[in-house]
Specification:
disordered C terminus; alpha/beta; single chain; 8-stranded parallel β-sheet; 6-stranded parallel β-sheet; about 35% strand; globular
Length: about 170
């Protein structure tokens, strides 16, 4: 009888452990994010398969599934994520499928995205490029030597400037 109880508990124990470890993995990926609090400074790269919320200072690259940069946060490094919400300051390139910039956001660096939302008041100093749209935009402006991220507006501006320049040169 003692051996049956031991066998049944040992049989159910690994099953319970695997279930709880699977639940922990699922919670890490879609549940509570890893939080870098406001009083924490990190020098080094961060890599996570789950979510990261930064409220402190990071000096290094960040690679995660989703990233939230809080209002008081400062990141000095490159960011590569599926989804990024920026409310604080980033000094470095941002590459993500979805980028959302709040009105308090400040980015000094290039943004490479598939989807971009910018609230009024957000600050950007750098180039903005679309992940999928780069090929389509360059096909449209193949006859023009303008840059691809803003080819439609720079082509129109370039044409107007060229037209205005001809009468002045004559």
């Amino acid at each position: 009888m003692f051996s049956k109880t031991k066998d049944s508990s040992s049989t159910s124990e690994p099953h319970t452990s695997s279930t709880s470890s699977e639940a922990k993995r699922g919670a890490t990926q879609s549940g509570v994010p890893s939080i870098i609090s406001a009083d924490l400074r990190i020098t080094g790269n961060l890599k996570s398969d789950g979510d990261i919320q930064v409220d402190g200072h990071i000096e290094g690259d960040i690679d995660s599934a989703t990233l939230t940069v809080g209002e008081g946060a400062h990141v000095k490094g490159h960011i590569s994520c599926e989804s990024v919400r920026i409310c604080g300051t980033i000094d470095g390139a941002v590459k993500a499928k979805s980028v959302v910039m709040a009105k308090t956001a400040r980015v000094i660096g290039d943004i490479i995205h598939d989807s971009l939302a910018i609230e009024a008041g957000a600050f950007i100093e750098g180039n903005i490029k679309r992940l999928e749209g780069v090929g389509r935009t360059s096909t449209v402006s193949s006859g023009s030597s303008s840059t691809t991220p803003s080819s439609s507006s720079s082509t129109a501006g370039g044409t107007a400037a060229a037209t205005a320049a001809k009468p002045l040169a004559s």
